[in-house]
Specification:
The complex is a heterodimer of chains A (114) and B (114). Chain A is mainly beta and 114 residues long. Chain A contains no helices and 12 strands. In chain A, a hairpin with a 5-residue loop joins strand 5 and strand 6. The radius of gyration of chain A is 14 Å and the shape is globular. The N and C termini of chain A lie far apart (41 Å). Helices cover 0% and strands 53% of the residues of chain B. In chain B, strands 2, 4, 5, 6, 9, 10 and 11 form a 7-stranded mixed sheet that branches. The termini of chain B are far apart. Chain B is globular and about 40 Å long. Chain B is mostly beta strands. Chain B has no helices and 11 strands. The chains are: A mainly beta (114), B mainly beta (114).
Chain lengths: 114, 114
Amino acid sequence: AQSVTQPDIHITVSEGASLELRCNYSYGATPYLFWYVQSPGQGLQLLLKYFSGDTLVQGIKGFEAEFKRSQSSFNLRKPSVHWSDAAEYFCAVAPKNYGQNFVFGPGTRLSVLP
Amino acid sequence: KAGVTQTPRYLIKTRGQQVTLSCSPISGHRSVSWYQQTPGQGLQFLFEYFSETQRNKGNFPGRFSGRQFSNSRSEMNVSTLELGDSALYLCASSRGQGGTGELFFGEGSRLTVL
């Protein structure tokens, strides 16, 4: 069965510092890959997605992610974190051409120090 | 363009009761999926509906059911509520035609079972 691992439960960074959130997945073939963000009491907002092609994808709010097939990873990065980035981040995979049965990772909570 | 709307946002029920949650997808979206989010289990897929038909179902007991109407609006029902059903229930919509597209989430319905 497919699974998603986010090794870091909680990360704290200072405002202005760089950020990398890790995501590894287990799946028989390359799935569709997503990063979502959730602020307290809110639903999930899509940051970026990877379907195929260029392995470095750009998203909203200055985020980017790199797909590495050999490592089954899809890590999220941001060069300079803003206080408003404090939230929970979820990596998700979905099998190609199989509807909306997304599998989400456990999430990484990001705290930002002023 | 209005987003995904879920009602009610908050509700409190007692064990043994049943609950119905409603979701209005983004206009033009024909696929609606439901997820349960809890601190212990994270985000788990419940089911997906497309054109009034259940297309996928997660690993939940039969107490959890759903349906979709001809206008793509969806409802989910949980019967004989248990304490463990306390969760944030998220609805997501997508265009749904063909393979997997990105999900657009509502803000969720927070259910507390006493």
